[in-house]
Design brief:
36% strand, five-stranded antiparallel beta sheet, Jelly Rolls, mainly beta, globular, 1 helix
Length: 211
Amino acid sequence: MKKINMLLPLFLLSAVVLAQNNGQSGWISLFDGKTFNGWKVGENASTFKIENGAIVANGPVAHLFYVGDVKNHDFKNFEFKAEVMTTPGSNSGLYFHTQYQESSWPAKGYEVQVNNSHTDWRRTGSLYAIQDVKEVYVKDNEWYTEQVIVKDKHVTIKINDKTVVEYNEPEGVQREAGMEQRKLSSGTFAIQGHDPKSKVYFRNIMVKPLD
């Protein structure tokens, strides 16, 4: 009986460590660092490849959508984060509340800008064409964290834990032609390949569902 009592604390400690390692903090990985399992791209699929544990977006316009099992790739309220690295002159984006398309720019959902030195003045962290950021908070050729938090009608965007956007979507908001579906609803995430001169890296892509 004493042996069992002595082993019990060790068992409980092991269980706690295992729980921590299995993501009990709530964060779930969406990318295994080796394959595109759970991800799908339509035309220009060659724009995306995997190098050294990161997704590389470099080529003609294309979008890589998460279509995996987590929440059946349908997220409403969540925290999302990814480590990103841009190269000089590059442009990309992270979409949320979107849905899979074979081609063209995603019509549904919002884009969070990835751009530190491209000719487009909307910089990293912008809620694209909704609440834009002109300041440059991070440098090319350096890894940084881009985080998006959505709670009902509120969007927070952070760069390296610094809040750069706080946006409240008005009730019944109406968008201009071509942006009709740029509204909060629910949906999946997507990574943008912008053009052949843009080369951007993404790794440690994670989500914490909040509902």
